[in-house]
Amino acid sequence: MTEWDIKKLQILRTLRDRGTVTATAEALLMTPSAVSQQLTNLSKQLGVRLLEAHGRRVRLTDAAQLVLRHAEVVFAQLERADAELAGYLQGEAGEVRVGAFSTAVPALVVPAVLRLRTAHPGLEVRVREAEAAEAYELLSAGQVDLALSLAAHAPTARDPKFSRVPLLADPLDVALPAGHALAGAPGLRLADLSGERWIFGGSGPWSEITRAACEAAGFVPEQAHSAAGWTAILAMVEAGMGIALVPRMAAAERVSGVVMRVLEADQPRRHVVAAVRRGAETAPAVSRLLAALREVAARR
Question: What is the pLDDT of residues 176-189, one digit of tens each?
Fold first, then answer.
């Protein structure tokens, strides 16, 4: 029977995800030569070629992809074993590390932590703010146990490394200066704002969400100013420098000189999801936090 080495399989998996030996070495705190040596040894153990030259880089062979398809099942089962062992050892105690994007922290994570503090006082939640896409990188690298992200920037539901849990569809409202001509207009639609000057980030998730929402309404938004933080965006809206789409989860950032309008038929939404490494969802601490997040999301 073939001898399987979990550590070497994890190195191969990381190479697939990171793309280069150098990036793999950085992610695993190894040297590039150590990564190459481990993969060479794995290839000898399995009796198949795992890597082939591709320009100045390497890529995985079909045999390597076959090996990893089976390895993902093993990794998921090991996560379940960790979860059951944690339940046996910890009982009501434990720790969950959460990576979450900025508006999800006050809107979802903090209320969930407050619920758990009463129901499970021995459970500790450690929060790390991260961009939506970065949260998955942290989860994949084992630096967090649960990621809160946006569905548009998450791996597909078919990705074997993760289990995804839909939480909510967060409506996007439009922020207008208090004196704007359309601030009180009935039946406001996103298409009515096609001639406006817009404020959104120059890149990243929010830029893509704003552009996609406007394009779905039939126009390309004219970007007047670029900003990533809601404090800066709403300050510019209040000053009459432009308008912006604002997620309802960011309600705490709203200011008195800005009118928030709920859009009518073409109201866009962003979909918020939680994710864990496949198999880890049965860990007592993780499952309790997921349940608390679902309860908070349902109330929104």
Answer: 999 899 998 999 99
